[in-house]
Specification:
Blueprint lengths: L5 H6 L1 H12 L4 E4 L15 H11 L4 E6 L4 H14 L3 E6 H5 L3 H9 L9 E6 L8 H13 L2 H5 L2 E5 L20 H8 L1
Helix pairs in contact: 2-3, 3-4
C-alpha cells in the first residue's frame, strides 16, 4: 500500500479500536465515516465502516455508527448492517438546513425505515457548522422553534447541538495572537 492509499488510513484505525478499548473501556462512542470517499473499500471489498466496526467488536468496543442524509447508498447499507448486528441504533448528523426543514420528521423516517429503526433509536447530532451567530437571539429563536416542532427531536434518545466559531482560515487574523470569541459557547448557554 502506498502513501495516500485509503486502506493505509483504515489500517491505522485498528489502533483506534485498541485505544478505545484501553482508554474508553465499555462506554459507547460514536464513529462517523463522513470523510471516507464513497468508492473506498477494503481489499476484500468490505465497506470501511463494516471493517472498522468489526475491528472494534474484536476489542469489545461499543461503537455507534453516525450517518447523515447526504451519505451514499453503500454507506447507508453499511450502517444498516452494523445496526442489525450491534443493535445499538445510530447517530444521525443533521446540518442546520436539515434541522430547519419542515419535512425533517419525514426525511428521518424514510432514512430509518430500511434499517428497522424509529426516532427513539437514534442519537441526533445537530451540526450547525459555523452559522451567523449574530444576532444570537434570533438564531436561538429559530433553533428553538425548529426543534420544538420536530417529533424526531422529541423522540430521539439524545440531542446534541454542535457548532464552531473557529475561523475557516487563519489568514484573516492579524498578529501572532488573536482572541476568537466563543460564539458557539454563548449560543449553548443561551439555548
Amino acid at each position: 500500500m502506498g502513501r495516500g492509499d485509503p486502506r493505509a488510513d483504515i489500517r491505522g484505525a485498528l489502533t483506534l479500536a485498541e485505544q478505545l478499548h484501553k482508554h474508553w473501556d465499555w462506554r459507547p462512542a460514536l464513529l462517523d465515516g463522513a470523510q471516507l470517499k464513497s468508492a473506498t473499500r477494503m481489499r476484500d471489498g468490505t465497506h470501511p465502516m463494516v471493517y472498522l466496526f468489526g475491528a472494534a467488536r474484536a476489542h469489545h468496543g461499543r461503537l455507534i455508527p453516525v450517518t447523515g442524509f447526504a451519505r451514499d447508498l453503500d454507506y447507508q447499507a453499511a450502517v444498516a448492517a452494523i445496526v442489525a448486528t450491534d443493535r445499538r441504533g445510530l447517530a444521525l448528523r443533521c446540518a442546520l438546513d436539515d434541522t430547519l426543514d419542515a419535512d425533517l420528521d419525514t426525511r428521518v423516517a424514510e432514512l430509518l425505515a430500511p434499517m428497522g429503526l424509529a426516532a427513539d433509536g437514534i442519537d441526533l447530532l445537530l451540526d450547525l457548522g459555523s452559522p451567523a451567530f449574530e444576532p444570537q437571539d434570533m438564531l436561538i429563536d429559530i433553533l428553538v422553534a425548529a426543534l420544538t416542532a420536530s417529533a424526531t427531536v422529541r423522540a430521539a434518545r439524545s440531542v446534541t447541538l454542535i457548532a464552531t466559531s473557529f475561523p475557516e482560515t487563519l489568514s484573516t487574523l492579524d498578529g501572532p495572537i488573536h482572541v476568537v470569541q466563543r460564539s458557539e459557547w454563548l449560543l449553548y448557554k443561551g439555548c
